[in-house]
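Hi U.,

Before I forget, here's the chain from the pilot set. I'm dumping it here mostly so it's searchable later in email.
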Amino acid sequence: MSAAIIIFDAKHVFVKDKISGQDLFTPFRVDFYNKFVSDRLKHLIQENVIQKGIDIEEILFHSNEGMLVPSEIYNSDKKEDYFKLNYSEINEDNIVVDEEIQSIEAFLIASQPKWLSAFCVENLPQTPMNNSGKKYLDKVLATDKRGNDIHILLKSESFDIVKLQNQKLYSFNCIAYDTMTDVIYFLIAHLKKFPVDVKNAIVFGREQDILEVKSLFSKIEDFKNISLTTKNEKQLIQFLS
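Structure:
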């Protein structure tokens, strides 16, 4: 049976074939949520996925805000309070959710749109839903054995940056951006704070963003000794599977 994955990224919903990475229908934009939008999205999924015998294996959501809290001090009842330590307020349209990352004994706290939670509970209650940042961290920590690397997961309005030192997590940040130039400048700033020389930079993102990153990366003197590896959305889906 064919399989699909649903990705919620900012205001867009993508439903992709899990093997090819191809969109099963045109990405659906959600500027505001109401019954009409809910019914339209439900119809698109029903017509283009379920009625064709395609199994929806997973829902991934890209959060624009996220932070790690050590398990030893974590209290799930206070996740909103932890969240406010990094972010001054919680958007009224969002809820705060948490997921445990056992390999580093920490919890990832992130924001999630209320409408997304409501839609999935109503229409896809049996389908597992995960934060892409959490899955990405799990995979990187399990597979990257090279040493001092930086990983970047580009999303529509933010990016996750993961720094590894001696194959262990050094830091994780979720940062908002407007342009790829912003991403590059943030990367330069993070490199200057890193206590060791970075050997590799691995960037996942959309094709158009990857092309711009490659162009900018080649022009920056600070990056001359760093090997850049770029991967597209199809490769991200395969990496997270």
